[in-house]
């Protein structure tokens, strides 16, 4: 099925409805939500935690949280998928802090995805989970950052790297990394607000 | 660390979302965010901005064991916390509807409430004569005005619109007590007015209830004695 802005909007509404169903204690709504979103969320968790067993644990914890707290989801918390991703990412970041000594970040683990932003406007069902307009805007603004800024933000967002780990990975002094992160965030905000 | 400059707040929120704040700063940030809605909004804005980035990852089917464990956890969760969750859900609906409903009460209370109140005996000093609730969908038009007359324990339900339920369904009114499960107050009339008489216990519970809700039930009402269908209209109880 071709993916259109309408399909994406319909999907957002469906996710909101499913979250409301969860808030009312409806398990079929929860099951449907899990079917639709867990592959995308699991991918985020595997990427950040690097270990399948930890990612499975985090996914289970996160969905239990989603089920129990679905009533606290409101539109001002952002798009439904944003809310789900945030629950999973913060859970993973917590686990990463706890397991820091066991899980070593190895840059070679990360897939090669230099062209990957092309898929932001792709036509998979997963693509519909997030607004296409926002995906296009983000791609445009990320393209406008310097390589170092973009890599620093990416290592933090996707791999849960600390400033120090980013410095190690990019073989760049810590001070430079901190400045890349700061300027990257500022540049991204300015660019997204100008769109 | 200072939190007064807007640029710094935006930056801190961004670093928080990226997971780059060190533990002490992070905990301080989280404490501040609890009380600072604007800071929470900055966090939400960054979360939203970055979320689209996750589309670069190829979806990965989690093993079936995760879903099986979740189902088991849900079953363990089911019994006692279902009501708690309903309460939370309804409160969430109310928090959104409360302002609109309160505004509607002011208007409807003046237009309709007065004529209702004049038909009841004069109030005693001890208890308010009447409690009002306007039942409406979130941000929707008022659908019923509910008036509870304390003295004769009478509940009047005045339809403010044509409130015909979906085919084969009934609208059922529920009171949400301070604690415990929702209590049925009966089926709703679709037009005109109708009334019910409460037991003294129900009246006492109603005057302290968190609010009212109307759910869609099979024709004739919920078969289980608890809400089984979606809550479509809610209302807060206001002393008149």
Summarize the topology.
The complex is a heterodimer of chains A (195) and B (240).
Chain A: H1 5-23, H2 27-49, H3 52-69, H4 80-98, H5 132-143, H6 147-159, H7 163-170, H8 174-194
Helix pairs in contact in A: 1-2, 2-3, 2-4, 3-4, 5-8, 6-8, 7-8
Chain B: H1 6-18, H2 23-35, H3 37-51, H4 64-118, E1 130-136, E2 142-149, E3 154-159, E4 169-176, E5 183-187, E6 193-197, H5 200-208, E7 211-218, E8 231-235, E9 238-239
Antiparallel strand pairs in B: 1-2, 1-9, 2-3, 3-6, 4-5, 4-7, 7-8
Summarize the structure in words:
The complex is a heterodimer of chains A (195) and B (240). Chain A is mainly alpha-helical. Chain A has 8 helices and no strands. In chain A, α2 packs across α4. Chain B is built from 5 helices and 9 strands, in the order ααααββββββαβββ. Chain B has helices spanning 6-18, 23-35, 37-51, 64-118, 200-208, and strands at residues 130-136, 142-149, 154-159, 169-176, 183-187, 193-197, 211-218, 231-235, 238-239. In chain B, the strands form 2 sheets. Chain B has a 5-stranded antiparallel beta sheet with strand order 6-3-2-1-9. In chain B, α1 packs across α3 (37-51) and α2 packs across α3. The N and C termini of chain B lie far apart (50 Å). Chains A and B meet through α2, α3, α4, α5 and α6 of A and α1, α3 and α4 of B.
